[in-house]
Amino acid sequence: MLHRSSSHRRRRRGFTLMEILLVLVILVILGSMVGVFIGGARKRAFVDASRSQLNMFKGQMEQYYMDVGSFPTSQQGLVALRQPPADLRNPTKWRGPYAGGDIPADPWGNPYEFTGDGSTYQIWSAGPNGISEQGGGDDVMVIGE
User: Fold this and answer.
1) φ, ψ for residue 95 (rounded to 5)?
2) Residue 73 and residue 123: Cα distance in Å, rounded?
3) Could you report the per-residue pLDDT of 37-84, keeping only the tens digit for each?
4) Which of 34, 30, 57, 68 is nearest to 122 (CA)?
5) What is the distance in angstroms between the CA of the first residue and the CA of the last residue of the chain?
6) Which of 8, 20, 54, 57 has the most CB atoms in a 10 Å sphere around its CB?
7) What is the pLDDT of residues 7-43, one digit of tens each?
8) Do residues 140 and 58 lie in contact, with contact meaning Cβ atoms separated by under 8 Å?
9) CB-based contacts of 134-141 (< 8 A; 24+ apart in sequence)
10) How buried is residue 93: exposed, middle or buried, by Cβ count under 10 Å (0-12/13-18/19+)?
11) What is the CATH number assigned to the segment(s) 19-144?
C-alpha cells in the first residue's frame, strides 16, 4: 500500500508580485546607471577628439607661420591652411596646403570658430551645446601666439 502523505509532496509556488517588482526596479536602476555612464563616456570622447583636432590645427598654424611669417587673419580664416589667401602680402611664401584635407567639422558637427590678427589666433569648438562663447561655457579652445 502506497501512502502519499501531504508532507512528502512538494508544493510549488511562483514568484510574488513584490518579488517581480523588486527585480524590475533593480533592472531599471542598473539600466539608467549604464546609460549615464555611456553618455558621459561619449561626451568625454568627443571633447578629446575636439582637442586632438585643435592640436592638429595648432601644428598646421605653426608651419604656416614659419613659411608666411604671420598667422592667418580672421578674414582669411582656417581656409588659409588649404589654399593661399588672396590678400597675402607675399604669395610665394605660402607653401601649403598645410591641412591634409578639407577643414573638418567638430565632433558635434559644427564648424570650428577662428579669430586671428596675424600675430595671434584662437581656434575653438562651440562644444556640446553648439553655442560659441569664445572659450567660455563648454567650448574647447586652443590659443596660439
Assistant:
1) -120, 30
2) 12
3) 776 777 888 888 888 999 999 999 999 999 999 999 999 999 999 999
4) 57
5) 102
6) 57
7) 555 666 777 888 888 888 888 888 877 777 776 777 8
8) no
9) 140/47, 140/50, 140/51, 140/54, 140/106, 141/54
10) middle
11) 3.30.700.10
Residue 79 and residue 102: Cα distance in Å, rounded? 9
Cβ contact 69:61 at 8 Å: no
* Cα→Cα distances 133→27, 99, 143, Å: 40, 25, 14
125 close to 108: Cβ distance less than 8 angstroms: yes
CA distance 34 to 45: 16
Residue with the three cell numbers 553618455:
39
Q: How far, in Å, CA of 4 to CA of 8, rounded?
A: 7
φ and ψ at 28, to 5 degrees? -65, -45
Q: Which three cell numbers stand for residue 132?
A: 560659441
